[in-house]
Specification:
By secondary structure, the protein is α/β, with parallel strands linked by helices. Helix content is 45%, strand content 24%. It is built from six helices and eight strands; from the N terminus they run H-H-H-H-E-E-E-E-E-E-E-E-H-H. Strands 3-4-1-6 form a four-stranded mixed beta sheet, with no helix packed on it. Strands 5-2-8-7 form a four-stranded mixed beta sheet, covered by helices on one side. Strand 7 and strand 8 form a beta hairpin. Helix 2 packs antiparallel against helix 3.
């Protein structure tokens, strides 16, 4: 019994920031596995994201337990504070997004990447690194051509839409190629709608 107590003390004491964070992470991981077990594959993504992060924290904690015997407690706490802060901001940066939020009563939204202007000046800052644009007065907007290639661009549909269909492609218009994102609240898009030159031309005529 005394040996078990000594092992537990060596694992948890002296406590550091990583002790607290790793413990919380393990609890979250267990909860994620439980949710996945109850809800099945629908919640698997939650566990798939959580578990690798927790395993990384456990690996760091092993290093933490080694350093606690070699480095003064004060220096270790300062080092961990700086390291965790940097990791936090790196996480925010890597997961930052550029959001286009539509607020409309129309049945569709259309984003055309046909502008030469710097579209980012139209966006407002969101949290630390993200940006967002709230679109209230129209359901069709123009963005810079290069923004179509951005992996962090998100087009967010009106909140009242329960279901939607999305199509991203290139539209040929008077010899010019226009990339676009078309989203409709219809469950399915008929081939004669989105693939029809006449259909897209009718939308483009509203804004040209």
């Amino acid at each position: 019994m005394d040996k078990i107590i000594r092992i537990l003390k060596s694992i948890f004491f002296p406590m550091t920031l990583l002790t607290i964070i790793t413990t919380i992470g393990i609890i979250i991981a267990i909860n994620a596995l439980y949710i996945m077990y109850i809800n099945g594959s629908e919640s698997a993504i939650y566990a798939a994201v959580t578990i690798p992060i927790v395993l990384f924290l456990i690996a760091l904690y092993v290093v933490d337990r080694f350093l606690i015997k070699k480095v003064s407690y004060f220096k270790l706490m300062i080092g961990e504070t700086v390291f965790i802060t940097l990791c936090f901001f790196l996480f925010l940066y890597q997961n930052s997004t550029i959001d286009v939020n539509f607020y409309t009563n129309q049945d569709y939204v259309l984003v055309l990447f046909d502008s030469e202007d710097d579209s980012l000046i139209k966006f407002n800052k969101k949290r630390v690194f993200g940006q967002e644009m709230n679109v209230y007065d129209t359901n069709i907007i123009h963005l810079n051509r290069k923004m179509f290639l951005r992996k962090d661009l998100r087009v967010n549909i009106p909140k009242q839409w329960k279901r939607f269909s999305q199509n991203s492609s290139i539209h040929k218009n008077e010899g010019d190629s226009i990339q676009y994102i078309f989203i409709t609240r219809k469950i399915t898009i008929e081939p004669n709608e989105i693939d029809s030159q006449t259909f897209l031309d009718s939308l483009l005529n509203k804004v040209h």
